[in-house]
Amino acid sequence: MNIKQLNLITKQVEIILDESKNLRGKNLKLYKENHVEYLYYLRTIDELIKQLNRITPKINELFKKEEIDYEIPEFNLFEATIEKIREESILFDAEPKLLKLIFASSNILSFIRQDIVLPENAQNKLDSLTDEISSLKEKLPEEVYSNLIDAKETFEKSCFLGSSLISGKLIRSCLDKMPGNDINEKIESLKNCNLVRDKEGAPSLIKASLYGRNLASHDLSIMPTASETISFLVEAVKIAKMTTEYLDYTSSKDIKN
């Protein structure tokens, strides 16, 4: 399940939780005052149950994948009719049903937020990167842009190692096009074009290059977290932009000469 789907499910469950809380405490009062409004009240609860039942298989599948020992049951509907309310004088047990909905929804949100959802800083970086990468479509070579999109979309599917490997491949490919025998000489080339500064860019470039090499070494102990993966993708975007600007600059300089 990708991040967009997870966010959609989270919003749906939040709505179910809020609406269930708002409906509490009205069961007996509505039953005594107006049977038609009481029927509408029960049908509203049924709609919340249907919403939760629709997404329950996906949530249970996600919990199983994440090894979370919790399974959401399928809730039965009231399926009330005005005849049952009026003629049989049935007072449906709405309050316990609402409490079960609230309990299930609260648990779902708790597990998602504590065990599955991205850290806030990683989500913020992803939102910013999505806009930045989109703006680079016409500025980067097609294969570079395509790899950035692949790395981002793989991250959104929560495949952090896969995303990091794509970012690492892209970083190595971009740096390989730069003159210099090692990362320090390549950074000097970028400095000469005012594309990198010691305090801002050099340390992060060196760190990204080293991290990429470690990933490519097939060291099984390396398993990137969400924060590490998105930070690595940030560096991939930065290096792709800098090396493309450098190559464009040197190419235009050669043409003038």
* Distinct helical segment count: 11
Proportion in β-strands: under 5%
Number of domains: 2
Oligomer: single chain
Care to describe what's here?
The structure is a single chain. With 257 residues, this protein is an all-alpha fold. The chain folds into two domains: 3-116; 120-256. It is built from eleven helices and no strands. It has helices at 3-23, 27-33, 35-65, 82-86, 94-116, 120-135, 142-156, 160-176, 183-192, 202-216, 226-256. The two termini are 53 Å apart.
Write a concise keyword list for the protein shown above.
11 helices; elongated; 74% helix; 257 residues
Concise synopsis of the structure shown:
The protein is elongated, with a radius of gyration of 27 Å.
Q: How is the secondary structure organized here?
A:
Elements: H1 3-23, H2 27-33, H3 35-65, H4 82-86, H5 94-116, H6 120-135, H7 142-156, H8 160-176, H9 183-192, H10 202-216, H11 226-256
Helix pairs in contact: 1-3, 1-5, 2-3, 3-5, 6-7, 6-11, 7-8, 7-11, 8-10, 8-11, 10-11
